[in-house]
Amino acid sequence: MPLLFLAFGGGGLSNLGSVPAFDFPPGYTTFFFVYVVLQGSAFAGAGAGAAIASDFETGFMRRLFIAAPHRVSVIAGYILGAVALALFLMFFLTLVGLAVGVNMDGDPLQLAGLYTMTTLVTVVSSLWTAGFALRIRVSRA
After folding, report:
1. What is the pTM of this model?
2. Could you tell me which of 51, 33, 48 has the C-alpha nearest to residue 86?
3. What angle is formed at CA 14 by the lines to CA 11 and CA 17, rounded to 5 degrees?
4. Burial class (CB in 10 A: 0-12, 13-18, 19+), 104
5. What contacts 24+ positions apart, CB below 8 Å, involve 35-39?
6. pLDDT tens digit string along 72-129?
7. 77 vs 16, 28, 111, CA distance in Å?
8. 3-state SS record for 25-38
9. Other beta carbons within 10 Å of 122
10. Are 34 and 5 in contact (CB under 8 A)?
11. Three-state SS across the chain?
């Protein structure tokens, strides 16, 4: 989904960079890239909650809770999996973004700050959807 957002938002709307009131020298595609990375990391975090709810429906979560000495470690595993997925997604989106013309005009510290912020968005999204999934226990919700 983030690749579609990058293609449609960054490519299809790239002419918005020529609007006189748009004052961002690297261009609209670079401006939109940050939104795409943040939304992709939120989607990765939301996938953790969907996986927890799905595992509740199939009964797999009950087996995990019985086998684990601490139930928090099971939820932490889902969250770490979502963070790993988000890091891979950020790396892949960065490569695709560079291929389609995203101008990385920030220094490496600023890029690390973007990746740290998106990792935090993944953790917060994972925790929110995990709490929702633990409360509802149905993937349809």
Report:
1. 0.83
2. 48
3. 160
4. middle
5. 35/5, 35/9, 36/2, 36/5, 36/6, 36/9, 36/10, 36/93, 36/97, 37/2, 37/90, 37/93, 37/94, 37/114, 37/118, 38/117, 38/118, 38/121, 39/2, 39/5
6. 899 999 999 999 999 999 999 999 888 887 888 888 999 899 999 999 999 999 999 9
7. 42, 37, 26
8. CCCHHHHHHHHHHH
9. 29
10. no
11. CHHHHHHHHHHCCHHHHHCCCCCCCCCHHHHHHHHHHHHHHHHHHHHHHHHHHHHHHHCHHHHHHHHCCCHHHHHHHHHHHHHHHHHHHHHHHHHHHHHHCCCCCCCHHHHHHHHHHHHHHHHHHHHHHHHHHHHHCCCCC
Q: Are 53 and 138 in contact (CB under 8 A)?
A: yes
- Are 41 and 119 in contact, with CB atoms under 8 Å apart? yes
